[in-house]
Amino acid sequence: MAEGGVAGAAGRHALVTGGASGIGAAACTALLADGWTVTSLDLRPSPLAGVASVVGDVTDEAGLRAAVASTGPLHALVCSAGVSGSSVGDGPVWSADAAAFDAVLAVNLRGAFLAAGAAWPALVAQPGAAIVTVSSVLGLTGGGGPFRSHAYIAAKGGLVSLTKALAAAGAEHGLRANCVAPGLVRTPLAGRVSSDPALSEWVAAKQPLLGDLLDPADVGGLIAFLCGDAARAVTAQTIAVDAGWQLD
Length: 248
Ligand SMILES: NC(=O)c1ccc[n+]([C@@H]2O[C@H](COP(=O)([O-])OP(=O)(O)OC[C@H]3O[C@@H](n4cnc5c(N)ncnc54)[C@H](O)[C@@H]3O)[C@@H](O)[C@H]2O)c1
Known about the structure:
Layout: E1 13-17, H1 22-33, E2 37-42, E3 51-55, H2 61-70, E4 76-79, H3 98-108, H4 110-124, E5 130-134, H5 137-141, H6 150-170, E6 176-182, H7 191-194, H8 197-206, H9 216-227, E7 238-241
Parallel strand pairs: 1-2, 1-4, 2-3, 4-5, 5-6, 6-7
Helix pairs in contact: 1-9, 2-4, 3-6, 4-6
The structure holds nicotinamide-adenine-dinucleotide (NAD).
Residues 17-18, 20-24, 42-44, 57-59, 80-83, 107-108, 111, 134, 136, 182, 184-185, 187-190 line the site of nicotinamide-adenine-dinucleotide.
């Protein structure tokens, strides 16, 4: 590497929660292409060739610690595991209940908190390590229109602040933490949108750059960039990948 230059990722290891599908899988693919060794931690094995799988649950604190211990030195953590609000009874505050709130927060916010905690000692041991969390444009805007999963929106907003806290604490160790906030992406989690023509049309209008849902690769490439040394001076940022959702 030239002095002041950017190292390649060869020999570096990334752990991706939710790596078996959608945005997490796209992050695995992009990281592999950049030369990373990649492990997916998910409820199910990764279908991707070249990705090691740990079958685990981000709500299981002891399991996360064991997974980190078993996979060796760690240079990046991607927190992509998540569930949609609608899959667990989420909705607006006047109709959703505490059980729905807890179910959404357990995976989407508490899961990232626990994964970052489990990975922290391994990450701070490696100069130039990185954490990337996956929020949502809904967490930045509050949703609106047909998107009223208030617990999901709260969880995704919480991830922005959690990421800033991780960046503040990590800087003295050379550890960076950044957040990506996707618009609506064509994955199983967004199946409700894909299968509803009126909702798809609403989303297409909100994402004028594409007039469609995003492809998971639109997000996976940014995650890999943020993990790597090309982003070595970037921390505490939330970057929307939303095809223009926030333009008015
Ligand atoms: N799809 C979208 O439109 C969209 C938009 C913004 C943000 N996001 C966020 O992106 C992330 C990835 O979602 P996706 O769209 O790729 O969905 P997806 O359903 O394709 O992938 C989610 C993955 O998380 C895993 N998972 C769920 N609960 C888990 C748990 N307790 N422990 C471990 N793994 C678990 C699932 O098995 C699945 O493989 C989520 O955090 C989601 O909230 C998605």
